[in-house]
Amino acid sequence: MKTAQRAGLSPYIAFDRASGVPFYTQIYDGYRMAILSGRLGPGQRLPSTRTLAAELQISRLPVLNAFEQLLHEGYLEGKVGSGTYVRDCIPDEVARPMRLRRPVEPPQPVRRTSGPPPGIYGAYRDQGAGMFRSIPALDRFPHETFARLTRRHAAHLSPGSLAYGDPAGYAPLREAIAAYLRTARAVDCDAAQVIILSGSQMGLRVAAMSVTNADSVVCMEEPGYRGARHALGTSAANVVAIPIDNEGIDVGAINRLGSRAQMTYVTPSHQYPLGVSMAVTRRLELLGWAERNSAWILEDDYDSEYRYSSRPLGALQGMDTGGRVIYIGTFSKVLFPAIRLGYAVVPHEMVLRFVRMRETFDLFSPVLYQLVLTDFLREGHFARHLRRMRAVYLARRDAMIAAIEEHASDVLTVGNSDAGLHLVAFLPEGTDDRAVVRAAAEESMYPTALSTCYANGASRPGLILGFGGSDERTLTNAIRHLAGVIRDTR
């Protein structure tokens, strides 16, 4: 038996044992799309995990994992003594059949015009390294493997590889990234939609310059990523800070801006800096806003691979049926910052405009690293590295939290720490977090003041503490030292 498409308990799952797609993923995707398409309506009961596993003739574990993820993301709710149901508060519009995207012919390759590009921007400021920086574990990177792949390509570069590259990126790399995103991030894309960039910061600027102008109003999270605020502000006259709560950005506040709002920047899988995940109902509200207003959503998925309370959450882009989401990703957090490679996934009709704008920055991304990264992805090194590093970062996060509880509980209160390479620790009311940062820098520690992430004034002082780049013992000692600095500063 290859495929299960019964009229019984699992009509929503095209279950194929021979597909190579994990059973958990097939169950999760089947029910998720059934809910989003309206085939499963609010309040509808699902079969028990035991019954579904028996029908599919598989272990119960993949079913439990899939249901747990759907519960965590807000698609389902459990009712004590009654079972599992589609969440009642899924917006009404989702109960109607989901309009499928109209097929769009992939764009033709961009032809280089003669003459230099109109302008190239300098490099983004060096973030550096140091205690509490939000950087990956550079000491745990598979240097030997990466060096071997680099030598392989450097020794045999063809004349074509030494010439000007495609501004959209090396085609096999785009294919490899698209395959990864479809499987790991639930991104709905093909290789023609993937554009290689010199980091996510470029992606933010290119996106803003492609779809906004000096009269545009762009919304972004408050608090939010300062780099995004700077990037969006270069092309849009008005960047409006929209508050977030425990479910994500306040879509009602965006709606009140009316047609003036033309783009909203969000970090839905792991909000920067507070760490909350956008609830499914809030995601659907935001997508509805974008479609009604012909507006754009800029999704920054900067470190979603590292999640500790559940499996990585699906991308907002994968829920988009109107082609209104521009998805930005980077290899800086999962590999190393100096690689300077990121990517954007854009709707087909936007590809040519996006590539032409991207070309004005630095023509194309370095070909050698693109060749190396293609093999790193295709040969399985990337997936293995992610699996290893999740365990490493979980241990480092736990060590930081334990150190704060033991040595700094009087001056630091840990916020959301479900994912990523940093956490926010709140300071006592009245503490000047910027003064703490200045004092810490004199001791060679480099946390970030939470107040710098606010455009309209911080509601509570705090510190953004990166834990990815240091081992457990170093983090414990550093927290003890930082606690002393905070006490002296107060």
Q: Can you give a write-up of this model?
A:
- This protein has about 500 residues and is of the alpha/beta class.
- The protein folds into 3 domains: about 5-95, Winged helix-like DNA-binding domain superfamily/Winged helix DNA-binding domain (Arc Repressor Mutant, subunit A); about 160-380, 3-Layer(aba) Sandwich (Aspartate Aminotransferase, domain 2), CATH 3.40.640.10; about 385-490, Aspartate Aminotransferase, domain 1, CATH 3.90.1150.10.
- The protein contains 15 helices and 16 strands.
- It has helices at about 25-35, 50-55, 60-75, 145-155, 160, 170-185, 200-210, 225-235, 250-255, 280-295, 350-360, 365-380, 380-405, 435-440, 470-490; strands at about 5, 15, 75-80, 85, 195, 215-220, 240-245, 250, 260-265, 295-300, 325-330, 340-345, 415, 420-425, 450, 460-465.
- It starts with a strand and ends with a helix.
- The relative contact order is 0.13.
